[in-house]
Amino acid sequence: MARVLIRNLNKKYDEVHAVKGVNLEIRDREFVVLVGPSGCGKTTTLRMVAGLESITSGDVLIGDTVVNDLPPMDRDIAMVFQNYALYPHMSVYDNMAFGLKMRKFARPEIERRVREAADILGIEDYLKRKPRQLSGGQRQRVALGRAIVRHPQVFLFDEPLSNLDAKLRVQMRVELKKLHDRLGTTAVYVTHDQVEAMTLGDRVVVMKDGLVQQVGEPLELYNRPANRFVAGFIGSPAMNFAKVSVAEENGAICAVNEGMRLTLPPLLGARLRAHVGQEVTLGIRPEDLSVVPGGESDGLSFPAVVEVIERLGSQILLDVKVGSGAMVVAVEPTMQTKVREQLRLALDAQRLHFFDGRSETAI
User: Fold this and answer.
1) CA dihedral 212, 328, 270, 258 (to 10 degrees)
2) Which residues contact 282 (CB under 8 A, 6 or more apart)?
C-alpha cells in the first residue's frame, strides 16, 4: 500500500489547459473520489497518475517514487475502466489471470490469486464462462477481479459504474465500499455522480475547469461548501439559490429581493454586515425549507406558489415560484397540497448559506 502525492500537476493540449496546478495528497489506504462535470479534468488527472497521459508539468509520486517517466506497468497500480475492457474470447478465469501470466507468475500462484479474488467477489461459479455470458454487474466484478489479483499499491477507477442500470449501481457502490474496507488498498475513483462521490469517498475532490474547488470529507463539503459551485454540485436535490440585496433596517441585517424580505438573526447578520448595500447569493437546501402551518408570518418566512408536485414515496418535492424565481422544497410524504396553492415557507436560519456576488466564495 502507498500514498499518492500530486504536486502542481498541469496538462495542456495545444491551447487547452485541461488540468491547472492540481495539488493533492491521497493518504495510504484512503479512498479518494474526484468528482465534477464533464470536461473538468478529473479523468485526465487520473490518467496522468496511471501513466496513460503525459504530464505537461508537475510531479506524481506513488510512495516515495516520482513516477512521471515510468510506464504504467512499472507503477504498481491497477486500473478499472468504464467499459470493462475484457477479452471476449477468453474465459473469466483467463481474463483475471492474463496480467499475471504476462508477468511470468508461477501457475500455482496464479491459481491461488484468481481463486481468492473470485471468492471475494462472489464469482467462483463463473470462472469458465465467457464475458458475453455474463450480466453487466458480473462483467464489472470480473474487471475488479483482474485488478485485485495484481495486489497493487493503488487502485484507479475511471467511472466504473456508469454503464450499469440505477439499481445495480447502488448495489455495486455497496460492494465497492466493502471491497475497499476488506483490502485496505489506496484507491482513487473518478465519477461525475455526486451521490457516488458522497457514499464512497473518505474524502472528495470537487473539480471544475481543471481546478480543484474544494477537498474534504463528504459532510464537510455538504455542510460547509467553499463556494457556490460546490454548494450547487454537492447534494441532491441541488441547493436553491436566490440573488438578494443586503440592507440594514433598525439595526438588523436584512436580505431582500422581490419575493422575500428576511430579517436575519444577529450572528448571521454579523457575517453579512460588511456586505450592506451589495448583492449576494442566498443558498438554502430543499430539506432546510419547511411549510409554515396556517401561513403565519415571521422574519424568516416568505410566500410561495406551488407549480409542480413530485411524489417520490419517501418525500415530496415541491417546485414553487418565489417572486419571479423558483425553489424546490422537500416535505413529508404525508403532506397534502395541490398545484397553484399558496404557501408560506420558513428557512432554517442555522442552515443558510451566503456567497459573494462577484467571487461566489462562501461568506
Assistant:
1) 120
2) 241, 242, 243, 244, 255, 262, 352, 353, 354
The x, y and z cell numbers of residue 3, run together, are 500514498
* pLDDT of res. 298: 75
What is d(CA 7, CA 144) in angstroms, rounded to the nearest whole number? 28
pLDDT at 1: 62
Residue of 208, 244, 204 whose CA lies nearest to 221:
204
Helix/strand/coil for 219: helix
Q: Is the peptide bond before 237 cis (omega within 30 degrees of 0)?
A: yes
- Do 330 and 339 meet the contact criterion of CB atoms below 8 Å apart? no
3-state secondary structure of 63: coil
Cβ atoms of residues 213 and 229 within 8 Å: yes
Give me the residues paired with residue 328 across strands.
Answer: 319
> Which residue in 109, 112, 168 sits closest to 138, CA to CA?
168
Q: pLDDT means per 10 residues in the chain (363 residues)?
A: 92 94 96 95 96 96 94 91 88 93 92 91 91 89 90 92 84 86 92 93 96 97 96 94 93 91 91 93 96 77 95 94 93 92 92 94 95
Contact 215, 222 (CB under 8 A): no
DSSP label of 227: B
Residue with cell 470480473: 142
Contacts of 244 (CB under 8 A, 6+ apart): 255, 256, 257, 260, 262, 279, 280, 281, 282
Task: Give residue for cell 499518492.
Answer: 4
At 3 the three-state DSSP class reads coil
Q: Which residues pair with 184 in a beta bridge?
A: none
Task: Give the cell for residue 203.
Answer: 474524502
| Confidence (pLDDT) at 2 | 86
164: left (phi over 0), alpha (psi -120 to 50) or beta: beta
| Cell, residue 233 | 454540485
Distance between first and last Cα of the chain: 40
100 class by beta-carbon count within 10 Å (0-12 exposed, 13-18 middle, 19+ buried)? buried
